[in-house]
Amino acid sequence: MRWHAEEIGQALAPLVPGITVEVLPSVDSTNTELMRRARAGRSEPVLLVAQEQTAGRGRLGRGWASAPGDSLTFSLGLPLAPEDWSGLSLAVGVAVAEALGPRVRVKWPNDLWLDDRKLAGILIETAAWAAGEPQASRYAVIGIGINIREPTPGAYSTPPAWLGELLPGIDVPEALARIAQPLAGSVKAFEAFGFAPFHVRFDARDLLRDRTVHLSDGRSGTAHGTTETGGLLVHTAAGMATVTSSEVSVRPAP
Ligand code: BTN
């Protein structure tokens, strides 16, 4: 498989100086690997791609299963020092959705959906930085998994979509080449300006807007977009609530 690693590295270098692009044939999880490296004091910027993950992880302790060739699995790791971290997953979601096409929607707080099915998931983790660095700065690991070909049938909490439905014939390296630069650009823009420049762009792709949603803490209501910092506004029986906890999962009513 040809990964265009050199071209991608050249495209990313002006945005993230010193970044390298690394492709591993197999790893437990690209997020786990970069978090391990960060904890061992390695905090250089890297785009780490796995042809196969043996223990892919999703949010809320879930797994992320993928078969080689059917799925793009990678993580962008870099030191980041935004004033406020809230809304980063939405900025990432908007960037990737825009790079993939107008039909791709962002489901708060960190999924991409196509035609009411899940196309991709985002898992962001951060590691504390080595001593001596500014406190605001952390090592951010932004992991993304995208179905490229039809996933093998299985027990999915949400029915899957795949990118080939939207871009017939696209393969895994092409998908990476398409999103790497917009992703890095948006992460750097988020670092400088926060969620503000992404607010309107998120609104245009908000899967949940005006839909009935059920929160995992038992509340339900109608989604009304986000606050300035990316919190989800939900009109519940008790009034307007802002959902900020990434530990709350949100489901649209069918
Ligand atoms: C989710 O939908 O809950 C998030 C899924 C994130 C999956 C990606 S695949 C690359 C990176 N490595 C992981 O182990 N997880 C993320």
Q: How do the strands and helices of this protein lay out in sequence?
A:
Layout: H1 5-12, E1 20-24, H2 30-39, E2 46-50, E3 71-80, H3 88-100, E4 105-107, E5 111-114, E6 117-127, E7 138-147, H4 172-193, H5 196-203, E8 212-215, E9 220-226, E10 232-236, E11 239-243, E12 250-252
Parallel strand pairs: 1-2
Antiparallel strand pairs: 2-3, 3-7, 4-5, 5-6, 6-7, 8-9, 8-12, 9-10, 10-11
Helix pairs in contact: 1-4, 3-4, 3-5
This protein binds biotin.
Biotin binds next to helix 2, strand 3, strand 6 and strand 7.
Write out key terms for the chains shown:
5-stranded antiparallel β-sheet; single chain; 7-stranded mixed β-sheet; 12 strands; binds biotin; alpha+beta; 5 helices; globular; 254 residues
Poorly predicted tracts of residues: none
Quaternary structure of the protein: single chain
Helix content: 10-25%
User: What is the residue-averaged pLDDT?
Assistant: 93
Structural class: alpha+beta
Largest sheet: 7 strands, mixed
Per DSSP, what share of the residues sits in E-state strands of 2 or more residues?
A: 25-35%
Counted beta strands = 12
Tally of helical segments: 5
Q: Which small compounds were modeled alongside the protein?
A: biotin
How far apart the termini lie comes to 39 Å
Q: What form results from the Cα inertia axes?
A: globular
Numbering strands along the chain, what is their spatial order in the largest sheet?
A: 1-2-3-7-6-5-4
H/E series, N to C? HEHEEHEEEEHHEEEEE
